[in-house]
Amino acid sequence: MRIVLVGPPGAGKGTQATLLAAKLGVPHISTGDLFRANISQQTELGKLAKSYMDAGNLVPDEVTIAMAKDRMEQPDAENGFLLDGFPRNVSQAEALDEVLNTESIKLDAVLDLEVPEAEVVKRIAGRRICRNDSAHVFHVEYKPAAKEGVCDVCGGELYQRDDDSEDTVRKRLEVYHTQTEPIIDYYKAQGLVVTISSLGPVEEITKRALEALKREDDDK
């Protein structure tokens, strides 16, 4: 299957993308991974992207699209892929359609992870990270440390990242509503959107998504 995954920050896209891609046997293609891979491998696109980033500028859509196109043409993506973080706006969605049409390929579904805004704020603003190891992540409500402010794993200090503050989260949500959310209507017009709730245990959300995608596939 060829799937685009969308949803607001805090919806669990990264987690679900990894699990769903493994279940479906397709590569998980995220913009973050694309940038890191191209920059570390010093590809021409990576060098170009880095030049914009080093100057403090946003990487232009055409560079991101070129990276995504190159990744989707790799052998492991021949039978499908799961796009996470791309397209990020309607112009990128239109460009993706052009790329796929050139290859006579069509998307199978756009999976929309729906979560109330209050829950997004609670999920992100409650997150605490270990200063010694950023892989040690806790949450003041959902996964509290045994001792407040202290990592259960290594005893390091737990802190809230600047971009996890409530004010920053609300600004990120504004950007999502303005730039990314319109792609849902764009894809709804093509009959591709499958919306599921992103509330509940991780495994339950994955099961919900797989069932919804299967129904979508069966209906075609």
Automatic annotation (TrEMBL):
Protein name: Adenylate kinase
Pfam families per the UniProt record, alphabetical: ADK, ADK_lid
Enzyme nomenclature, EC number: 2.7.4.3
Cross-referenced NCBIfam families: adk, PRK00279.1-2, PRK00279.1-3, PRK14527.1
Coiled-coil blocks: none
Name of the coding gene: adk
Species the sequence originates in: Streptomyces adustus
CDD domains: ADK
InterPro entries per the UniProt record, alphabetical: Adenyl_kin_sub (IPR006259), Adenylat/UMP-CMP_kin (IPR000850), Adenylat_kinase_CS (IPR033690), Adenylate_kinase_lid-dom (IPR007862), Guanylate_kin-like_dom (IPR008144), P-loop_NTPase (IPR027417)
Domain Guanylate kinase-like as annotated: residue spans: 1-214
Sequence segments annotated as region (NMP): 30-59
GO biological process, one term: AMP salvage
Subunit structure: Monomer.
Pathway info: Purine metabolism; AMP biosynthesis via salvage pathway; AMP from ADP: step 1/1
